[in-house]
Amino acid sequence: MSTDAPRSNSDTASTPAVPARTNEGWQPGDPTPRAFVEQVIRVDQAGEFGAVRIYEGQLAALRWRGQGASPAARKIEHMLAQEVEHRRTFDNLLADRRVRPTALSPLWSVAGFALGAATALMGDAAAMACTVAVEETIDEHYAAQRDKLGEDEAPLRETVERFRQEEVAHRDEALASGAEGAPAYELLTAAIKGGSRLAIWLSTRV
Asked: Does 145 reside within a domain?
């Protein structure tokens, strides 16, 4: 099966002009610029924490399968190392900006590990399909944040964009590693994307 999957708009479209102010043009009922930045930090920390747990679950399952030193495990270990760095960055931002973390972290810890383990137990292709689904969702999410973060939040915007590019690289690596060969690939990735979007929505608010 071809690995030439459709790319998200954030990959192919030109980057829009950076607004001068974050969440420029906000209306009553929208989050204020400060509230928006807090939401960005809160949900991104939750998302990176969940990604770490997914990859930890996948590695645990590969060890259970006796494949802890396999090529798939090495790829996942590399992705995990980057996700750990992403999470640490947002951990620090939570503390520095005095942002309340999501109350759902215990749920994302269990759910992320379970998702990672379950897909890896289904086989290497399913584990890579999980990566494709999660990283495509995060790519879209980070791109939307990037486009609302203004010059007044240039360091945060640059961090979000750098991490987005690394998540896209994870997706591309997973596609090149045979993700589309997973059983019921379209159904599996659609379900994971739906769950990931729900987790983003909840973490923004809870």
From this structure: yes
